[in-house]
Amino acid sequence: MEQGEDLLEVVRNEMVESIHAGHLLILDKDGAPILELGDLKSPLYPRSAVKSIQASAMLRAGLKVSPKELALICASHAGGGEHLDVARSILSGAGLDERALKNTPDKPLGASERAAWGDKAATSLAANCSGKHAGMVATCKVNGWDLGSYKEVSHPLQLAIREEFEKLSGEAIIKVGVDGCGAPLFAISLSGLAKAIRNLILSADPVHQEVVTACRANPVMVSGVGRLPTVLMEKVDGLFVKDGAEGVMVIGTRSGEVIVWKMSDGSQRGAMTLALASLSHLGIELDIERETVLGGGDVVGEIRASKLVRHG
Questions:
Q1: CA-CA 20 to 30 A from 203: which of 6, 184, 194, 289?
Q2: How far does the chain reach from its first CA to its final CA, in angstroms?
Q3: Of all helices (H) and strands (E), which one includes residue 184?
Q4: Whether 43 contacts 193, CB under 8 Å
Q5: Quick one: how far is CA 71 from the chain centroid?
Q6: Residue 189's Cα: distance from chain center in Å?
């Protein structure tokens, strides 16, 4: 994938100090492009932005969970006490405990949650993907599939997830990688990602509707208090939001409008600015404090999305 176009400018004392380039696509409610920037066709790893698609495959394979548990399966959670409790609940519902998890151990993702964790060792349960992995092993238990090999790309669970990706995106998976948590990553294009999220949101399939409804109803489970996906879903009724590592974001409205982007440098800096600028193209204006640049403890600049500014 090429560098893309300049999406964000970091301005200090009226001078552009840094630029973040990337690729962005905004679709209207009919699926027609409103704004296209960068490379929409090359494959990318959507990372955690597509846990909802993985969760859909789990439900289709027979997993039964509560809405809050389902939202956590779709989450990159901050690692708060409630997040860990819900992950344990998913496991216990299948007669399992955290020993069944094989995702990469980590400390909590959220800054305050990580500080509260202190010097305790990293664990698979505390890692932000523990909800997804709890759902994965619970799905395996329901189907009598091998638990020890659930992360292998040839495992029945991963084959089911791959099928869900191809069905929703309309693209054949030709590249598979390994996520930071150890689960398979299925590469799709940015346009395929936008199509997949739009199809997920508008689908009449009860499985897809269960996933989307659970996330909308439990925004704190999907991310955490004060974190961008949670804040946006709390601010806008019916919004579906999920971020992913290496600067990936998906946003969808109830009517099927979709915003997706991938930052070329993998940066998350300016994500709030880019989200607000993108949402303005859908007529959604939010009163949220903008990201600023500090110098000596004072505001001396801003992060701005110049190419997304609407004129007229």
A1: 184
A2: 33
A3: strand 184-186
A4: no
A5: 12
A6: 16
pTM score, whole prediction? 0.95
Q: Phi/psi of residue 141, each to 5°?
A: -65, -40
All domains in the chain, ordered by first residue: 5-308 (3.40.710)
The amino acid sitting at 134 is: A
Show Cβ contacts of residue 235 under 8 Å, excluding neighbours closer than 6 positions: 286, 288
Helices and strands in the chain: count of H runs, count of E runs: 11, 12
pLDDT confidence of residue 82 = 97
C-beta of residue 229 within 8 angstroms of C-beta of residue 223: yes
* Per-residue confidence (pLDDT) for residue 310, from 0 to 100: 65
User: Helical H runs in the chain?
Assistant: 51-60, 67-73, 81-93, 111-117, 130-143, 156-169, 190-202, 206-217, 219-222, 228-235, 271-280
Number of other CB atoms surrounding residue 27 within 10 Å: 23
Q: Is 38 left (phi over 0), alpha (psi -120 to 50) or beta?
A: left
Q: Is 104 exposed, middle or buried (0-12, 13-18, 19+ CB in 10 A)?
A: middle
Which residue's structure tokens are 């996933």?
A: 211
> CB neighbours (10 Å) of residue 118?
7
List pLDDT tens digits, range 121-166: 999 999 999 999 999 999 999 999 999 999 999 999 999 999 999 9
Written as six digits, the tokens of 294 are: 């500090």
- Does residue 269 contact residue 20 with C-beta atoms inside 8 Å? yes
Neighbours of 234 (CB within 10 A): 13
The answer to whether the CB of 230 falls within 8 A of the CB of 217 is no
Q: What angle do CA 89, 137, 219 make, to 5 degrees?
A: 50
Identify the CA nearest to 100 among candidates 109, 113, 90: 90
Residues paired with residue 12 on neighbouring β-strands, in sequence order = 15, 301
Q: How many CB atoms lie within 10 A of CB 64?
A: 12
Which residues lie closer than 8 Å to 254 by C-beta, 6 or more apart? 201, 237, 238, 239
Residue 71 and residue 212: Cα distance in Å, rounded?
Answer: 9
